[in-house]
Every structure is written in C-alpha cells, then in structure tokens.
Amino acid sequence: xxxxxxxxxxxxxxxxxxxxxxxxxxxxxxxxxxxxxxxxxxxxxxxxxxxxxxxxxxxxxxxxxxxxxxxxxxxxxxxxxxxxxxxxxxxxxxxxxxxxxxxxxxxxxxxxxxxxxxxxxxxxxxxxxxxxxxxxxxxxxxxxxxxxxxxxxxxxxxxxxxxxxxxxxxxxxxxxxxxxxxxxxxxxxxxxxxxxxxxxxxxxxxxxxxxxxxxxxxxxxxxxxxxxxxxxxxxxxxxxxxxxxxxxxxxxxxxxxxxxxxxxxxxxxxxxxxxxxxxxxxxxxxxxxxxxxxxxxxxxxxxxxxxxxxxxxxxxxxxxxxxxxxxxxxxxxxxxxxxxxxxxxxxxxxxxxxxxxxxxxxxxxxxxxxxxxxxxxxxxxxxxxxxxxxxxxxxxxxxxxxxxxxxxxxxxxxxxxxxxxxxxxxxxxxxxxxxxxxxxxxxxxxxxxxxxxxxxxxxxxxxxxxxxxxxxxxxxxxxxxxxxxxxxxxxxxxxxxxxxxxxxxxxxxxxxxxxxxxxxxxxxxxxxxxxxxxxxxxxxxxxxxxxxxxxxxxxxxxxxxxxxxxxxxxxxxxxxxxxxxxxxxxxxxxxxxxxxxxxxxxxxxxxxxxxxxxxxxxxxxxxxx
Length: 625
Description:
Layout (H helix, E strand, L loop, with lengths): L2 H7 L31 E4 L6 E6 L8 E8 L7 E9 L6 E6 L7 E8 L2 E2 L3 E4 L8 E7 L10 H8 L5 E4 L31 H12 L2 H7 L3 E4 L10 E2 L2 E2 L4 H4 L2 H15 L15 E5 L3 E5 L13 E3 L16 H11 L6 E6 L7 E2 L2 E4 L7 H13 L5 E5 L5 E7 L13 E8 L12 H8 L3 E5 L3 E9 L2 E9 L9 E10 L6 E2 L33 E7 L6 E8 L6 E6 L4 E6 L6 E8 L6 E8 L4 E8 L2
Parallel strand pairs: 1-11, 9-10, 10-11, 15-17, 17-20, 20-22
Antiparallel strand pairs: 1-2, 2-5, 3-4, 3-6, 6-7, 6-8, 9-24, 12-13, 14-15, 16-19, 18-19, 21-22, 21-23, 24-25, 25-26, 26-27, 28-29, 29-32, 30-31, 30-33, 33-34
C-alpha cells in the first residue's frame, strides 16, 4: 500500500524523489505443460480434519467443465485417501475449490486435479495438529505489488522446507491501472488495464495475472495458505461503506465494487466461506493444538468506519469520537472471545494495519491504522490488560516496513528499557515488493518519537519468519537483496522474541536455525516438472479470459504469446458483417491483454476472432445487459 509514502510526504524531512528502479526482464512466461491448469494449484484454511484445495482450469470450449481431484499421502498417488469430481463454469470464473474432509491431524498430504485428459501439477498441504504441540513455524507476508518488482520472497519461501503454513496479511494484489502505484517504469511488469480495477471482470483479471506469476505458483504448491484481504484487493484506504480511491461517478456504487472484489477474492483463493456462498466474512481462527490460537481479523471491510488522513491531532473531533469502530460490534465480541480462549498458550493475531502507536510532533501519523480509531483500539488493549491475557503477538502488514514493537496501553507509563507498560507485542515483516522510500535519518526520527518501536527497516523487502514454542515466539526478519532481478540472496536481518509471560520484546539470542521434519518439497524447480503433468504441443497463443460476457462498454482478452506477434482482432455480427477490425502493434512474448471498446455496438450476439502468427481464437460474445 502507499500509505507510508503518503504519511512521510507530509514530513518535509522525510521525502525526496524516488530513484528509478532498474529495468525488469520481459513479461512473465507461461508453462504450457501445465495446460489446462496454467494458474497452478493452492491449498488453504487448514483444520485438523480438512483443508481447501484450489485450482483454475482454462477452458477451450466455454461451458460447464468437469474436474476430478485426488488427495493422497504420497507423491505418486498410490495411497489416495479421498477423491471426487466437481463442475465449474464461467459463473465461478472456471475456478475450482474443494473442502476435502476426513483427513488426519498434523499430516502432510499431496493433491492434484484432472480434466480433459491432463493432470495439474501436484500440490502439498498439511492439516493442523491437535493436543500437545511443541513448536510451529510460519512465514508471514503482505503487500505484493506486481508492478514494483519480482516476488523473490515468495520464491525463497517456496524453496525452504521448514514451515507448517504461510500467511498473507493483505494487499496480495493492487487494484491500480498500468503504471499506477509504485510501478518501476518498466512496462513488462505493468498491470493488465489502463484503468483501475472496479468491476468483477477487472478483479478477476488481476487475480489471474498474479496467479500466473511463477514465484507465486511455486510457493502456493508447497504450503497451505491462510489469507486475509486489506484495502488494495478492493480500493486504496477502503472501509465498510467507501474508499479514498473510489469515484462513484465513474466507478459506480461502492457496494457493487466491493462485492465484486470480494467475489473474485473468494473465487481465486483457497479460503473457506463462513457459509456456502458467503464471501463477506473473513475473520476466523485456527488452533494449532494447545500451542497457539491464530486469530485472523478483518480491520478493513467488515465494520470499519471511514479512514482519516495523516498528521492528526489527538483532539480532532473524529479522534475523540468513542463511537468510531475498526472491527464492528460482532467482530469485536468474537475477537474478545478468542483472546479469552484458555485452551492455547499463545494468541497470534493476523492483522492488516499497524496497532502500535506511530506519532510525530505530538500528532498521529496515519489515521488509516489503529491510531485513527483510538476508542476501538483501547477497547481491545484494555480487554487484554484487564483480563491478564498473556502471550499476545500481533502480526501486521500494510506499511511496507519491518517493525518490531511493544504495544503500550492507553493509560500506562511505558519504559523503553524494561518494557513495563506494554500490553502486547507486534511484528511487521516489511513487504514483498511495495516500497517505502525514506531518506537517511528517517527511521531514527520515528524511533525517537516512538520509543516502543524496537526495530525499524524502511528499505528492505521480505517477510517475517515466525517460530512459536512453549517458551517464546521469535520473529526473524528475512530480507531479499532486491526485487528488480530474479537473481537474489536473502539475509536474516534481525531477530526479536516475546518470552512466555512477558508483554514486551527482547533481542533474540540467535537466528532461527534449521527445522527439519517436513517431507520433501512436492516437486523440483523449474515449475512443470511434477509427475503427472500432460505434455502439450506449443500452441503459440493461449487465451485465459474474455471478460465480461455479456459486455456493455468493453471486452478484455487476456492471452499468452510464446513469441512476439502482431494480433489481428476481428468482430463480426451473426450475419458475418465486420463490426470491428484492428491489427495491433507487435505484442511482446508473455502475458498480454487487449481492450476493445464495445460501447457503440448494437445489443446482440457477435463472433470475436483473435489471430496471432501462430494461432487463431474465436468466441461468441454478447453485447447488452
């Protein structure tokens, strides 16, 4: 998200022009051997007896499609424990999501899909443990902006083999148009469209583009994912009934846009709905035996009142309004009940926005964080303090910066030397690619004004490696050397821990070492080498999507070219009369899009034809509501 840039822009001592990032290599390639499962596989929301498995099948004939699935205890699928068949169609954007039940706790499984004579690549997943658990290790990340660079942190997570699950805390993708956000200036990493995403078709296109990324696919096939959304899955600085970056005059009603974003999110991610067809609620919890309760919040779309700006006086009328809410009453009551759960030692909270205070010159830097909702924040922290709840660790995202924080209570006197006055702790593991440019001295100025901030790194990208055992929760800040090239190294840059029974952070005595015990990674790199994938001929052109259909003002085609080619686009009515005829300039190899304005077409049925040097694609489309 861009908030940290916006915040610091208000501070003359902080911002200068951002240097141009190095140029990036060509558009992402597509592994044609994955056909028709080009977007890979994923699993998520594991419980002790079940887990969601996911894929997307790209149709060659647009109608209902049958997809088979298998879950096994071995990579050769000789010991299949559950299997079945489901159907998908355009109403689901040809995504497939199965809640596989009847599984054993704390067990690794392998899964795959089959359709049209071809297998998907295999995925690896794990159920949650029950009873006594000694230790668990997670990778936690946020803010993966496609236009800002390569997802090297995802690749690093994919290659390590010491985790039980992965968490994404929001801003998985960014709704901005091509060249928006913190785009590097290299058009080969640009987003799909020349306008911000605001329709269901737009959000589906963004989801497709991100899931075609090879680093994303590599990571998701190895570990179960537990995700929550933040604002950029819909619009910048969004809340329940609006967003800073939403214009009703050009983008329609907010709730229509929000519902479209949520629908695409649930279609394209292995997240379990609260009830069948319910894509509204994402607050939920996951118990890792008696060790910890993972509590995932929605501080964005469910109950939040309007976001405030930056550099806010604590006496601002909105800041002193005790009725302003971040979670809403239903989620707040649920959150308190989860915090009071006595069956687990630790409470690990997946939280979109920073909850530790962030001030400068006596004012609140960012009203979009918990600081902008002080009454609601106090309701949470006071509940923790008054009920003597120990071992509470917030893991947050959003701010593109590595932080290790104590969280002082509203009325406490905080001591930086002892941690006295801290109610809980917070760890924030930078971002995957999104930037937070700060001149030298910026971190020092913020730390001076906020002594509970124990560690800050504005510069490096990466993720948080969180290891929890009975005596401590340790977070290691894993940073990548860069995101402008696929060649990178990683550094374990800092290590902080919350000891059992304490409410503040200490510097950890050592880095997190190897954590053996996992079975082998599901397949070697590069992608596509897994057993069971059907070899296919080089088709030259693959069509992933043709949105929306029916159309009103626009049709967008998303396609892959194995080599640069001009594209001839031809649209005829049902009598064969040519309505639209265009030959594009040479398109680069990789994933491309073509946008066609249909606002002047009479309502009715048409045939669209897309022709490259190596292939032809035709489809019937409908213009009109």
